[in-house]
Amino acid sequence: MPIKIPDTLPARSVLDSENVFVMPQTRAANQDIRPLKILIFNLMPLKITTETHLLRVLSNTPLQVEVDLLMTSSHISKNTPLEHLTAFYHTFHEIKHQKYDGMIITGAPVEEMDFEEVNYWEEMKEIMEWSKTNVTCTFHICWGAQAGLYYHFGIPKHHLGKKMFGVFPHTVNCPQEPLVRGFDDLFFAPHSRYTGVKREEMLNKEGLIIVSESNEAGVYIAMSANRRQIFVTGHSEYDPNTLKEEYVRDVRKGLDIAIPANYFTNNDPSQPPMVTWRSHAHLLYSNWLNYYVYQATPFVLDEIS
Fold first, then answer.
1. For residue 126, which phi and psi values (nearest 5 degrees)?
2. Is 235 in the active site?
3. Which of 95, 135, 153, 157 could form a disulfide with 195, with the two C-beta atoms 3.0–4.6 Å apart?
């Protein structure tokens, strides 16, 4: 998929080096098609890294995608240069009059706080409510998934006691669902979180479907019955070294952190990671874009309701 992003976005040079087709704005302007408009609500502190992760997995279909980046106005990131935020990000006030084919809400390092304690929770609620009428399908990741399940379905999050950390095997509950079309019977995905949702609190929730889960990591993918809200509790978009970087960071902080499960060769942090989730990650995002965005969205964006 040609990803249409600003010519000077830092992710472009990284993706170019990997032979990912990134379309500069100047070339995109000459193509007589309507691109899919995707909004990335980036709540992660290292925003440039997360942009690259997500743009990489959005790059695997023949459709043109135009990406807007959204940040909170009630909380300003201290880990991303202000110049970058000013150049590439919008606030909700600036884009709320628009409609989008799809939106991604990322995770955030606030999972051990109650939702109502997060200083941008009211803004988050406003954006999630807006998404119900202004976005064809919203894809929630990790804490974003927990926040979405809580807001849309009243599903609480629970502390796990220790960090769910590593790459875990998953199975598919609904093989007929297009989101998991082409998935193997057993596939892997990374998780990195201290909280989770309980399967038993979701099973009988009207309008909510559990699509995939793991014996170790719990519910992985859920969705609303109308297919407009998708919740993914893990991080399939992660790069090969992301869990390693998190592990090294936590060790340096003196935290009591276990080695990420099923990740390092021979479970040895001095050895390189074993990458077992990349094909699943690309398939998950290409299925989302194809079946839940492209095939579901109206040609005229203003007709989304």
1. -60, -40
2. yes
3. 157
